[in-house]
Write a sequence for this structure.
């Protein structure tokens, strides 16, 4: 069995942003040479997510609005977590949107359903953070 590991680094200038990381994952899959297997993609931080959905701008704004209803950023004082930091909302948003995805690899390609794309969801940016890729198979 072959194994390929890569960290993708981000330094998002905004507090929140969604980024389509599918091209970067595909590039690593090609480098790995693996044709049949599994690809794990996970956020390595507790205030960021990796999830799969559609790359459509209206939907991305809907996610932002929905998450702000569920776990509004402000006022910062509403979260017990916010003593020496202000990212209580970002921990909750990460939990809702998830930590990781696993995608099947078939014939050297990410075996997606219709419109599926992999996203990095940043909920407390303005600093360097990373995503782990682990690809295993033959
Ligand atoms: Zn925190």
């Amino acid at each position: 069995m072959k194994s390929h590991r890569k960290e993708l680094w981000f330094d998002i200038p905004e507090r929140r942003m969604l980024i389509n990381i599918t091209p970067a994952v595909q590039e690593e899959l090609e480098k790995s040479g693996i044709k049949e297997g599994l690809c794990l993609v996970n956020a390595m931080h507790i205030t960021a997510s990796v999830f799969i959905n559609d790359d459509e701008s209206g939907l991305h704004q809907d996610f932002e609005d929905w998450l702000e209803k569920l776990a509004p950023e402000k006022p910062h004082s509403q979260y017990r977590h916010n003593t020496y930091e202000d990212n209580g909302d970002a921990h909750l948003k990460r939990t809702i949107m998830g930590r990781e995805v696993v995608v099947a690899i078939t014939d050297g390609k990410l075996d997606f359903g219709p419109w599926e794309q992999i996203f990095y969801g940043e909920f407390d940016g303005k600093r360097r953070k990373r995503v782990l890729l682990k690809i295993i198979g033959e």
Notes: The domain at 2-137 is CATH 2.60.120.460 (Jelly Rolls).
